[in-house]
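Reviewer 2 asked us to include a model.

Predict the structure of this chain.
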Amino acid sequence: MAQRRRRKYGYKFTEKTQSKKGIAAFFLAVLSIAIFIYVIVNSFHHGGNGSMYLGSAGVSSMLVALVAVVLAVMSLREEESFKLFPYMSTVLSFLAAGVWIAIYVIGFLIV
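Predicted model (structure tokens):
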């Protein structure tokens, strides 16, 4: 009966913690995506003629996305941590870095 009660409530005692690198990578990836959206909307409103501040925000955000990729991969290798944030941050950071790299490659090919 005790075995059944434990399964019913789903208690699981463990020493695992949330990965701090995974949380940081997730935050950086979301920040990079938010800056990407801001840069695209602002550039659209100016007819494609954004200022140099807008361009530097884009380059900085791409670097933030690359740092997020490194942190996400490092967080996947942590032993005693839950894997939710590392997996989410890996997907989001690769998405953010991929989008930024694609934008710059397209920009170089067009010019």
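Residues 23-45+53-77+85-110 form one domain. The longest helix spans residues 84-110. We have added this to the supplementary material.
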